Amino acid sequence: MTEGKKYFLLLNIFLKNEMRGSKILKNSAKSRYYMILLFFFYLMTGLYFTAISAVYSKGSPFTFTLFFMTILFFMTMMLLLLELRRFLIMPEDSYILLRLPIKTETILLGKVSFIFLYTFIISFSMGFLSLFAGYFLKGGAGILGILGMLVVLFFNSVAVTLIASFLFLGIISIFNVTKFDKIIVYFSTIFTIGVYIFYVYLIQKEISLEKIGFTRYLPTYYFARLYEYIYTNNFKDGIILLFSIITICLFLIFLLYKLFSKNYERYLKNYEKKALNFKNDSNIHNANPISDLIAILFKRERELRTRTFSTIGILIAFILLSEFKIFSNESGSSSFSFIYFIVPFILYIFLLVFWNTTFSKDYKAAYIFKLSPIGRGKLLISYVDGIFNSIYNILFLIIGAYFILKEGTLNGIVLLIIIYLLLRLLIYLYIFLNPTMPFSAPFNTRSNQIVIFINMVLLIPFTIFGFIIYREFIKKSYLIFSSSLIFLFILYIIIKFLVLHKKWRNR
Amino acid sequence: MDSAIEVKNLTKNFGKVKAISNASFNIERGKITGYIGPNGAGKTTTINILNGIIDKDEGEISIFGEKYDKNSEKFKYKMGYVPESQYIYQHLTLFEYLVFVGKIYNITKNELREKIDHYLDFFELGSSKNSMISSLSKGNKQKLLIISGILHDPDIIFFDEPMNGLDINGQFKFKDLLQNFKRHNKTIVYSSHIIEIIEKYAEKIIIINKGKILFYGTIGELLERTEKSAFDEAFLSIVND
User: Fold this and answer.
1) Which among A99, A103, A272 is the top mutation candidate for probing chain B, defined by the most B β-carbons within 10 Å of its own β-carbon?
2) What pLDDT digit, counting tens, does each position of A284-322 carry?
3) Hey, are the CB atoms on A269 and B55 less than 8 Å from each other?
4) For residue B105, what are the domain limits?
5) Residue of chain B with shortest Cα separation from A273
């Protein structure tokens, strides 16, 4: 069998395994709801970005594409960097693929192609509404606009895949994989804050993205130019640019193939030892069965989840921005800080909690937790956690009722949520910072990716959207955000009780 | 002596840990060789090196008289491996997984279908053909691993604790399979902690401990050397020496 055929076989296997693993291809009611919600989530995110980009671009096809694609580029890049390790290196790959007559280069290309398809599906879902951007940009281009945006979405995904793969393989060539995990999580937090601040700054100061020098070094600049050429029927320049982009992509694929396949092989071959070490390190999976027991007693089954990195990052960003008011025109205005930093923050956290309690894929870890013995110093925190999950919510409702009475309904609810979330965050923060200390618990680093991704996805659009709304409807913005909150809460309740609750308990 | 595998001065370190230290041995063609040793002795590491899953640090390996090149695919067609660890793509069906493995080994479509059906029926997995691997029990996953390791009819088969998780029926089936391989002159390297199996089936044994080969020969030779009357006593005597 030729390597080409093996490549397609591999790609097929990777896609099936991942899509089914992510519950996307499973033929069950749960997976259908999951898929619908996921698609809805991406579509809504795309809608935000499209709307923001359209307002920001003031009808210019180039500015629109540059702005939109740059957001998409960084978002998908972030997602990929967080997921790459899982995508590129699976223990299954070491055991199954290395013993089979397949070249490592073919495995790597199969993996990268799979990652590209994954990225493209997400980009397409988020960029779906941007396909119709031509209908509201200057000199509407109709079908050409759709085609142009499709081409740009395709190349944007190629660029993200290649750059992320280079980064990943480059980092693991220098550092080991444990360091990679740490580096990438820190990086993602800083990166999220950075992009967040940058976009807020850009919109607030009304700075045009194309006038910033470094954008010329971003591939999105050239994709935007390509879209502009297609949009304006400038086929001569369009074909030259398209040809250049294709050449660069092919060159990068060749470079990846030649430069990193040996590293990739080396890494796959070392995986076994690392996997075994991980398996043997019982501390990693040390558990809080008492917490589970208490939670079950109180009809709650949530094990402690410590998905804190992104949360801490956003918390720091929020504190910094609020404290220094660096972007505040209305210096000293508390409503400004409240609307632009606290409300998006709340919405983000709410979705985080929603995701953790509804769609978490960590039930295998929970299973391990239940089987593991109780370690020293874990008993008390187990109780605290169990009680926290069970009784605190009731206590919290009482506090909430007091706030509502004192501050009015809306202010009371908002205040309630802030205090609830901040207290929870503080506890997670303590656990995260002191995993071996008394009253703490070991934390599991797996599957943080989707939460951090949601962080990225939600924080930026909500904030930018907030800025846009603020200028025109100062008072209404408050209502819109509050309505969004209520809408999300209703959505949460519906999905939790009607669709997922029984199935989650049975799995 | 006709060697299927010759290993000379094989060394592998994991950081400061010496997993295999200067190991030399031969695996005879057409025979079942028991590769035994305590936990962490270096058995799986040796087998993983021979199957190209990890790289050796030093030493030479020959397969059927030819110098083993990890990048050469022809050796992989000759070898089959049933690993101890149950790492399989969980979200494929049994059939999809076996078709994938079979196609990679260049088995023709009809032959592959026949073989898959034959082995699935043999291990009583026919009704689970289109089930997800994730839904299988540990024992059934082990059966799947066995099938995927022998599907391409290799000349040399490495079994690393192949009976892990198998029920009594599965164990009988596996023993039948082993007898069948013996009749067809397949070279088997059988790594296990279960002394009884090794005693019953292995024609030669290799004992490894702390990365060093302690004994190579027949069980009779081992008993003679250790002056013990039982195989398990002789094994312990060599390991604890």
Assistant:
1) A99
2) 222 333 333 333 333 322 322 333 333 333 444 444 444
3) yes
4) 3-240
5) B14
Phi first, then psi: what are they for B25, rounded to 5°?
A: -165, 165
Q: Is A90 helix (H, G, I), strand (E, B) or coil?
A: coil
d(CA A221, CA B199): 70
Question: Is residue A399's pLDDT more than 50?
Answer: yes
Structure-block tokens of residue A222: 């050239």
Domain count for chain B, please give it: 1
- For A100, phi and psi rounded to 5 degrees? -90, 155
* pLDDT higher than threshold 80 for residue A446: no
CB distance from B39 to chain A under 8 Å?
no
Determine how β-strand B58-63 pairs with β-strand B187-191. Answer: unpaired
Which residues of chain B lie closer than 8 angstroms to A278, CB-CB?
A: none
- State the average pLDDT over residues A323-336: 43
Please give, one letter per residue, the 3-state secondary structure of chain B: CCEEEEEEEEEEEECCEEEEEEEEEEEECCCEEEEECCCCCCHHHHHHHHCCCCCCCEEEEEECCEECCCCCHHHHHHEEEECCCCCCCCCCEHHHHHHHHHHHCCCCHHHHHHHHHHHHHHCCCHHHCCCEHHHCCHHHHHHHHHHHHHCCCCCEEEEECCCCCCCHHHHHHHHHHHHHHHHCCCEEEEECCCHHHHHHHCCEEEEEECCEEEEEECHHHHHHHHCCCCHHHHHHHHHHC
Q: Which amino acid is at A133?
A: A
Chain B residues with CB under 8 Å of A266 CB are 55
Q: Which of B53, B73, B79 is the closest to A95 by Cβ?
A: B53
Joined tokens for residue B205: 């044994």
Q: What is the CATH number of the domain that holds B75?
A: 3.40.50.300
Does the ipTM exceed 0.95?
no
- B132 in contact with chain A, both atoms CB, cutoff 8 A: yes
Classify residue A124 by its DSSP letter. Answer: H
